[in-house]
Amino acid sequence: MVGPQYDFLANPLGAVRSTFDSAIASGSDPSSFNGRDWGALDLFRHFLFDQSQLSQVPVLTPTTIRYVKPNTLVRFRGMIQDMLGNEFYVGAYKDGSVWRTNKFMDVSQYPIVSSADMRIWERRLLYCVPVPGLNPWAEISSEAFGNQSMDWTSEQREKRRRADDEPSDMPREGEDPSAASQSRGVVAEIASCSTSSVAGLDGNSPRCLVKIYDSPESELKLNDIFEFVGIVTSDPELQEDNEDSDLSNGFCEDPLHHFPPNKVPRFHCFIHRKLAVQDFLQNNPIVEPKPDLVKGIREALLRHLSAVLGNDDVAAHFMLLHLLSKVHARVDALAVGKLSVNFTSFSKETVSIFGNQLNLAVKNLVPFTHCIPLTVEYLNTASLAPKKNYDTNRLETGILQLAEGSHLIVDETKLEAGTLNSVGVENARLLKNLMELQKVEYDFKYYKMEMTTDVQLLVLSEGKSNILPADVIVPFRPSATNCSEAVAAETLEAWRWYLATVRQLPHCIESDMQKVVENDLVAARQADRSLKPEDLSRWLTMGRLMSLSFGETSLSLEHWQMVKELERLRRERLK
Fold first, then answer.
1. Each residue's pLDDT tens digit, 347-389
2. Half-sphere exposure for 133 (CA within 13 Å, toward CB)
3. What is the average pLDDT across 183-210?
4. Residue 273 parent element (H or E)
5. C-alpha distance across the termini of the chain, in Å
């Protein structure tokens, strides 16, 4: 017997209601579905993943949101900027003698009469924003939406031509009453505000209030990046419902009061998946990073970095290791695996050439990038740490609320003598903690909470930075200018794939190499008593990154010798 066919793209709520009706008909108790799926989401997973239809789902962007047909299936990518707790809603209710569900909706399909048959359920509320610092090449393409948006626009024109014959406030025949109101609201109201700016955001994508169903709290964490699949709503009736609802007023103060639906669309999530850096590659090949393939890509990228840095091969090698670094473990307060770099010998003149070239190169290689022009005025006025506003019950974002895998360049060449106020002193401490511990303090007014992060930090300065103690100091020695050349799109894609892929490889040091490394570290300490434990730990990190840069998962003698030679050349420059 062939099962029912659903139009998952055009009418996803139809599949939700139909499977709910089937579950009730089979004798299930509606109360048992609080926090549990009744089979609808399995159908969506089969459609999206088993049948590989995810690419057919339109992507929500400032452009496409103007054409989104209400209650159709869409995708939204964003970072969890704030977690607003849970919301009570009427999950199931009786319409006469028939059970109905209000799941994945803000406004019910049928009138709800308060009775003992109402089932009150909960859903989580997440405020999600565009990924901070997302570069244009990493934005998901919205071309797939083109034909559908044209069809939707044509449909809207046809409806306007019929507007004189039908009352504008009545639903069309066969149209869901809630969809009728949403079709008026979602296009006009969200489109008018989808480009509205929010402090610290670049506006490349709309902000959404994402409503999560049936998922453990541990699955979604602050600052994680997710792709959500579901439906978007911005119903004008919703504001009135929020004001008049006995339910919201009876249980608690409405947490959504400061998120008006005509400015922050509601996104009801069916399915979500956490995204990593690899998911932002436009053409992500499923290729194993074998050493012979990786070696050629590595050499080409190293030549490019060297050209960007004025043919400074030593700086280029450290830059490559820096771009491959990540926090892969935490031991007590130590973030193991990070490799922050301080390029010194920069001036205002050289930073305008090589600093700009380096900043552009990083933007073309890493999906999330930021640049801070550090001055006394900046330190005294910038909002670096996220702060809790108890008047609005909002976590107000700060510059350092970044997604995992972000890259941050701090330009100290503009820093001149001056006096730091209390804000400046606090901001300097926040930057220092970020570099040393890979942690950011969130200000909750009555207390502060440290949140772990993983941000690659690069400092450009004239002398050694006194504010940001980097893991490694590299004096910059360019020998030429204007050496960098245009890079083909295919080459850039290969480099992005390389950086995103090899940094995720596992790594170990075999027992025979462990003995060699131990002997070398002991000999180095005996030869130079100024070496600290942090220096020796950094050498091990560099050994790991050097191996990974070749696509190798264990440290070889050759790569360890390369690390020692690179360190020798660096220390010569410091003399």
1. 888 898 999 999 999 999 999 999 999 999 999 999 999 999 9
2. 27
3. 44
4. strand 266-274
5. 81
Mean pLDDT of 121-136: 94
Structural element, H or E, at residue 308: helix 291-308
d(CA 507, CA 170): 64
Q: Which amino acid is at 301?
A: L
Q: How many residues appear in the chain?
A: 575
Write out the DSSP string of 439-478.
EEEEE-SS-EEEEE--EEEEEE-SS--SS---SEEEE---
CA dihedral 18, 20, 24, 29 (to 10 degrees): 180
Produce one character per residue of 98-124: b if its CB has 16 or more CB atoms within 10 Å, e if not.
Answer: ebbbbbbbbbbbeeeeeeeebbebebb
Tokens of 472: 């490694």
Structure tokens at 550: 């070749």
pLDDT of residue 184: 35
Q: How many CA atoms lie within 13 A of 202 on its CB side?
A: 16
Tell me the backbone φ, ψ of residue 552, rounded to 5 degrees.
-95, 145
Q: Residue 309 has which token pair?
A: 């840095």
**CA 64 to each of CA 74, 139, 198, 273, 398: distance values in angstroms, whole numbers, following the listed order:** 10, 13, 20, 21, 28
Query: Can you list the alpha helix ranges (DSSP code H) found in 388-445?
Result: 422-437
Q: Edge to edge, what strands does the sheet with 448-452 contain?
A: 394-396, 387-389, 439-443, 448-452
Give the integer Cα–Cα distance in Å for 197 and 59.
Answer: 20
In this structure, are residues 510 and 553 in contact, taking their beta carbons and an 8 Å threshold? Answer: no
Look at residue 171 in the predicted model and tell me its pLDDT. Answer: 36
Structure-model confidence comparison of residues 143 and 386, the more confident one: 386
Antiparallel, parallel or unpaired: β 266-274 and 439-443:
unpaired
Q: Which two tokens stand for residue 100?
A: 């109905």
Cα–Cα dist 475/216, whole Å: 49
The residue whose two tokens read 């044509």 is: 154
pTM, entire model: 0.85
The label of the residue with tokens 């700016």 reads 197
